[in-house]
Amino acid sequence: MQGSQQPVRLWDHRWRASGWRVLPVCCVLILWNPATALAQALTADMMNPAQGGFAPADKSLLRKTADNGADDDTPKRSARAPSRIGAIPTYGVPPASGAADVGFDSLNRTRKKPKLYPGAPKPKIAGPGNPPPAAPKAKIAAPVSQSVAGTFPGQPQRRRLKVDDDPFANVGFHTGTFLTKAAVELWGGYNTNPGRINTPKGSAFYTVAPELLIASDWERHSLIADLRGSFTGYEATFPPTASGPSPVPTSIDAPTFNGKITGRVDAARDTRINTELRMRVFTDNPGSPNIQAGLAQYPLATNIGGTAGVEHDFNRLTVSVAGLADRTTYQQSKLTDGSTFTNDDRNFNQFGGLGRVSYDLMPGLKPFGEFSADTRLHDVKSDRSGYQRDSTGGYVKAGTSFEFSRLLTGEAAIGYSRRTYQDPRLTDMKGLLTSASLIWTATGLTTVRFDATSSIDETTLPGVSGVISRDYSLQVDHAFRRWLIGTAKVGTGTSDYDGTRFDRRYFVEGDLVYKLSRTFQIKGQVRHDWLNSSANGASSAATVVMLGIRVQR
User: Fold this and answer.
1) How far apart are alpha carbons 250 and 236 in whole angstroms?
2) Contact, 421 vs 428, CB < 8 A?
């Protein structure tokens, strides 16, 4: 007990010793300034848990008053920190945030000094005295609805849109699972020699050319319909003269149509069934020797046919076989005297087969070999000249397809063709055939296209078996602007009528397209054609100037 009470006695002794000394001083202060006694009175502020609550700042002896030179006795509030609501947080420390403006940063990149014009003030370097400028506040985008953002519960995932390479291209419209693109072109111009005769006679003309493209949008299989037509009407007519019937029809107005429906059925992973239906409406080309003298108008010809085949992949090897059938018919010829002339001897059916083998040698290079055989059966055993024109023929060719980084695409081939006629008086038609369709993207603004075609066609010339035609063309497209496209095109071709007549053709063409929008385009064209023939009086030349508008949807 004595040990536990000893500290209390010691504290009591010390307090007594010091307390008597402090007490007189407190009494003197209270008598000198009675307000100090009131400041120590028990008030509600003394129970305030805030900092300085026991001795409020407005009642402190150290507060600023008018007596000690302060502007007012109201304490100033400290500045609040900027709000972080809506601001994009920044994580980590960006590279070279603490480096100087010379030398290298932490990523070993050279720090370049900004170039200043003469007399410009030098930028201040961030440091203790010059803090870096505050970054601009990020703008918060306006919120969008869940249906637009694709986050609505139960909403199917939206398909990502493809990059639009041509901002003026025809986008079309969807009809169910099909994408449809429609367009029509209206042309007007002048042709210095529309009949392609030796003594030219010019005429103004107009052309209406509608187009329709329908393509399926399926994960498997495919169906594409491409339909194109035109009608050209001329102001001038070519009536018969006093010297005899005109070699050109009185009215040279002519419609054309070219339609094709292509289908593909994916029977298996490596097996496809390919089908095609085609229809073509045409007339004989102006200047052709097949045109009768004294016609009132061109007789129309119609070609209807189809192809069906199977294609299978054996690893890199692709094999395809197909069968084809075509029917070609001609209308009766209307003569200027009101009579008609039959063209049944020109009507024929063609049946044949086609085979192709290709090998994927390397990416972008796929060589192939192709062969075909067919027979042509005419409705009339002998034609107007007494010749039997039923024939059999075919061709073989070899080539390759190209696709090198999309810079060079297409295919080119060379082969040999032969056709034998039933009439022994008609010699066999044979010769070298070429085919090509190449597109070279020279630059981002320039595209070069090369085309080559060859064929053996029918003719009505007495004693002539047929005609071998070969045509070559080179086209260069350049985009001066996205909305201004210029085209230059040159070409040549030959027609060999079994050695009795040889025609050589040339042409030069220039086009300019001004795209107003995705819907409207303005077009202009200038073209010049030459025909040099071994037949007397068959050579001709013509210049065509056209201006038109294209409306597409």
Assistant:
1) 9
2) yes
Give residue 107's pLDDT band: very low, low, confident or very high (50, 70, 90): low
Contact 456, 429 (CB under 8 A): yes
**Spatial CA neighbour of 260 closest among 297, 291, 223:** 223
Torsion sign over Cα 263, 268, 269, 271: negative
CA-wise closest residue to 347 among 335, 331, 333: 331
pLDDT digit string, tens, across residues 39-75:
444 455 555 555 555 556 666 666 665 555 445 555 5
> Do 238 and 200 form a contact (C-beta atoms < 8 A)?
no
Whole-structure pTM value: 0.70
**How far, CA to CA in Å, does 490 sit from each of 33, 407, 544?**
116, 22, 15
CB 268 within 8 A of CB 313: no
pLDDT greater than 70 at residue 35: no
Helices then strands, counting H and E runs in the chain, come out as 3, 21
Give the C-alpha distances (Å, rounded to integers) separating 336 from 119, 244, 296, 341.
Answer: 91, 11, 5, 11
Mapped onto helix, strand or coil, the DSSP state of residue 63 is coil
Amino acid at 172: G
- The values of phi and psi at residue 391, to 5°, are -150, 165
Nearest Cα residue to 346 out of 325, 362, 328, 322: 328
**Run of H or E including 25:** helix 2-32
Contact indicator for 172, 553 with CB cutoff of 8 Å: yes
Rounded Cα distance between 534 and 502, Å, is: 5
Cα 495 versus chain centre, distance? 37
